[in-house]
Amino acid sequence: MVDEYFDEFDVERIPKRYIRNIEDPFEKYNDNTFLKRYRFPKLIVMDQLLNLLGINYANNRGLPIPPILQLLTTLRFYATANFQTVCGDLRGIDQSTVSRIIKRVSHEIASRFRDHVKFPQTEAEWSVIRQQFFEIAGMPGVGGCIDCTHIKIQNPGGINGEVFRNRKGWFSLNVQLVCGPLMEIHNLVVRWPGSYHDSFIFNASHACAVYSNNNHNLILLGDNGYACKPYIFTPLLNPVTNAEKNYNKAHIKTRNIVERVFGVWKRKFPCLRRGLANSPNTIISIIVACAVLYNISLKLRLPDFAVEDETVEEVNNFLNDENREIIGAAARRAYIIRHFT
């Protein structure tokens, strides 16, 4: 009866709205604009980055957003850290959908962490690393440079919210990074709140086990935020002799590479510099994903990005008593006598 009733009228079916039919960024932007907006060239996005995702749809039910568009949405967020900007690019897709895309894609990329961020595995590989570090400033035996950087986050709230407040008074994650001589990231630790000290994070990390075992006769270079130990050398606070001064100069010049890594990493992905307001688990995935993408970019020798006029206040956690680790201080003194006198 209902069908017969409506058959008497000329009822026009309302067409389904296909909100996914938006402009193709590959066609819309030239190569330079595309690189600036998405941080990677078109060919690299299609041929390599898309393979990092495990997103597949068996059919077109519900008009799912294509994986390539999800990837570009996430890369655009990494370059801006602004949901409104990303939503403006994707007209017809609301912020909640964009948030889910960023969460999903970041997790997918972060899951490839062990494939792209790892220590050398063999003695031959470590030997190359030591030689490359030696060529920087003549410090033998160096196998890495370490430091921490604070990534600004929104107050997570809850009973543990204040644990994330760092010494400067803002909320952050204290992220540890160990890099190699070519500015590659070898190790990343993203789980400690901003109130935790650099030295504590290192002592609880896999990097500590790698260097303290000393199977490859390695030295890790750190600033005075770390205790001096036989496997992690810090600068002398008050060098007196020429040997001590030469050691400090070589140490500062060699360890400067980790500072450069932080700078390039945060210029490549400004979301790390401007701060993240996502959920805690998503923030961790974003930071890890940015490390994976950084190493891929470095391997492909993609261009760096100019720094914007934006000041970020760093948090320094220095240990003032350089003599608290007697064994480490003795090992450093012997090293200075052996190599810098």
From TrEMBL:
The keyword Hydrolase applies. Residues 146-295 form the DDE Tnp4 domain. Its cofactor is a divalent metal cation. Belongs to the HARBI1 family. Keywords: Hydrolase, Metal-binding, Nuclease, Nucleus. GO terms for cellular component: nucleus. This is DDE Tnp4 domain-containing protein. It comes from Macrosiphum euphorbiae. It is found in: Nucleus. The keyword Nucleus applies. InterPro entries: HARBI1-like, HARBI1_dom. GO terms for molecular function: hydrolase activity; metal ion binding; nuclease activity.
